[in-house]
Amino acid sequence: MVLSRIVLSLGLAAAALVLHAQSTPRVPGSDAIKRQVKRPVKLDRTGFEFGVFDAGPLLISGQPSEEALRALAKEGYTMVINLRPNEEMQRVAVPESAVLQELGIEYVRIPMNGSETYPYSPETIDKFAEALSRNQGKGKTLLHCTVAYRASYVWTAYLVRHLGMDLNEAVPHGEAINMRNLLEPFLGKKIRYGDGR
């Protein structure tokens, strides 16, 4: 478990470096989103596995309960982006898709778990960017996975790939949620991400 998290952390950090170097597609609405970005703050709310964080243009959380989804609908949320694959969602008591359909909230699935079927990739970040951009001006967005771990990496990679944020500036945004650099405790020092790209 610890080894797989280390591999995941290293893989996503390396992917973010590569993502920034590649030509990044320009998604409409990116400038408006960039102006809203702030360092994520944990909110004092119940109904979210691990917690829920306000990142500015969206909330990022672990698995929401049905009550939490219903509360979001009353607060003007019009999109939920779920990173959990079907196999994971089969173990969740919340019939998320059905609840969101009933509430009139758009449900976007971008399943990812680092497997061959659901890889971590630039395309994952591009799909997320397109969905987030599509919902701008319509309402608020929630991005979630199980405990906001994958979601924190997606958010960090998005900040670098689509908003042009320096990697050294973006990483603390992810760390404020649930992104972990698991090598630092073993090495006893902070890790710098090269030139920040």
Describe what this molecule looks like in 3D.
It is a single chain. This protein has a single domain, classed as Protein tyrosine phosphatase superfamily (Protein-Tyrosine Phosphatase, Chain A), CATH 3.90.190.10. The chain is built from 9 helices and 6 strands. A 6-stranded mixed sheet has the order 1-2-3-6-4-5, sandwiched between helices. Strand 2 and strand 3 form a beta hairpin. Helix 6 packs across helix 7. It is globular and about 45 Å long. The N terminus is likely disordered.
Which percent range fits the helix content? Answer: 40-55%
| CATH topology value | Protein-Tyrosine Phosphatase, Chain A
CATH superfamily: Protein tyrosine phosphatase superfamily
The dominant shape is globular
Please give the CATH architecture: Alpha-Beta Complex
Return the average pLDDT rounded to an integer: 86
User: How much of the sequence is in beta strands?
Assistant: 5-15%
- In order across it, which strands form the biggest sheet? 1-2-3-6-4-5
The tally of domains stands at: 1
Structural class: alpha/beta
Low-confidence stretches: 1-23
How widely separated are the two ends? 28 Å
What's the Cα radius of gyration? 16 Å
Number of helices: 9
Which CATH C-level class is it? Alpha Beta
Largest sheet: 6 strands, mixed
